[in-house]
Amino acid sequence: MAFGLPALATPGAEGLALSVSGDALSAAVADVLAALKGPFKFGLWGIAIYGVLPSEIAKDDPKMMSKIMTSLPADAVTETPASTLPLDQATVRVRQRVVDVVKDERQHIAVVAGRPMSVPVVDAKPTKRPGVFSVSIPGLPSLQVNVPKGVPTAKAPPKGIVAEKGDSRPAGFTAGGNSREAVIRFPKETGQKPVYVSVTDVLTPAQVKQRQEEEKRRQQAWDAAHPEEGLKRDYDKAKAELDAEDKNIATLNSRIASTEKALPGARAAVQEADKKVKEAEANKDDFVTYNPPHEYGSGWQDQVRYLDKDIQNQNEKLKAAQASLNAMNESLSRDKAALTGAMESRKQKEKKAKDAENKLNEEKNKPRKGVKDYGHDYHPAPKTEEIKGLGELKKAPKKTPKQGGGGRRDRWIGDKGRKIYEWDSQHGELEGYRASDGEHLGAFDPKTGKQIKGPDPKGRNIKKYL
């Protein structure tokens, strides 16, 4: 099989058979690997590249369960070139992996990244058959690896596996739950570079459903323990839907404007074509009226046929112009109807995004464990009017996390936007920062505005929270 293209294998008397191509990585998989360079928030992310149709390939007997086998050049995914590894090294870290994921009640093969993982390094041992090597991977039947030379490779996935290309998204908590991976190192004399191999069990529909339920359960447990992360994900999804609807509305408005601009010309074309038809008909009438056949001579019939042909041609042009105008009007009606629906849909999506944003902000601003719970005295933040000696202050959104992870610091803007003050609940002080670059200016007494501690520009800076 070609690098990046899955193959199906069923365990036989000698285990699993795998054919490794020496060709370059397929362009499609290379694009996916490039798209998953990161960095990624919230752990493992992936892009599904193949969907699995279990009814086509799953077996009832676990011993005969088909395996999906995918190979890649090891150096494309490892942190360290596998060819440079010491012979006694048993594992290597991979940046990107090929594993199974479940979504929408289906099993998929995806390239995932965001959480490097160590996989075993195994040696390919020669067999009696030329070009065939025996490989042992933990948790899998014996693997017979064939390295053909000059043999055409498959260019399409086998029956039961369909190519797909989605966007990058969280890979889920059970990603790789039915996949085993290894880097195969071949004898030096073969000239074959190390190969990364991923072997995935094909799940039955019942197994897919079971794993989907496990994925859902673990996601719910995670969201309960990390509510802000779950709400941020909900907001990002709602915002993406709103942005997509805005793009759809912009496209519809552009098409409507373009059609409306073209309509006067289309109407004029119909009028001009109709005029030409009437002129052609008048030409024939005049000829027949003023040129009787017995006076005109033998060419009379030819002239009538010529005039009839002209009428026919002008009618065809009129028909085409009218059809073009009708198509424009129909397109305009469809787009206006679609725009009405899109505007209504946008209202709903805007409300959904706003609700999600409000929930996220409420969670961000929700009182967390104060520093008192971590062994310190807790000083509640003062009201804006209670702060003296620092001029006019305006309350600002909280951005900087508190020490210990207990929410975010209260913030005020002062000195006409040139300074930021944040509440230190551990010491009951206001920390001052320069608004332009986040540099620390010192600590201030909220009751008098007097500076009580000097600046700490190296130890304190809120540039990334401006």
UniProtKB/TrEMBL annotation:
Region (Disordered): 149-177, 208-231, 328-415, 432-466
Pfam families per record: Cloacin (PF03515), Cytotoxic (PF09000), E2R135 (PF11570)
Residue span(s) of domain Colicin receptor: 226-361
GO biological process: defense response to bacterium; killing of cells of another organism
Residues covered by the Colicin E3-like ribonuclease domain: 379-462
InterPro entries per the UniProt record, alphabetical: Cloacin_colicin (IPR024575), ColE3_ribonuclease_sf (IPR036725), Colicin_E3_ribonuclease (IPR009105), Colicin_R_dom (IPR024566), Pyosin/cloacin_T_dom (IPR016128), Pyosin/cloacin_T_dom_sf (IPR036302)
GO molecular function, one term: RNA binding
Keyword terms: Antibiotic, Antimicrobial, Bacteriocin, Endonuclease, Hydrolase, Nuclease, Plasmid
Gene Ontology CC annotations of this record: extrachromosomal circular DNA
Basic and acidic residues bias spans: 210-231, 344-395, 432-442
Domain Pyosin/cloacin translocation span(s) in chain numbering: 1-223
Protein name, UniProt field: Cloacin
Species: Klebsiella pneumoniae
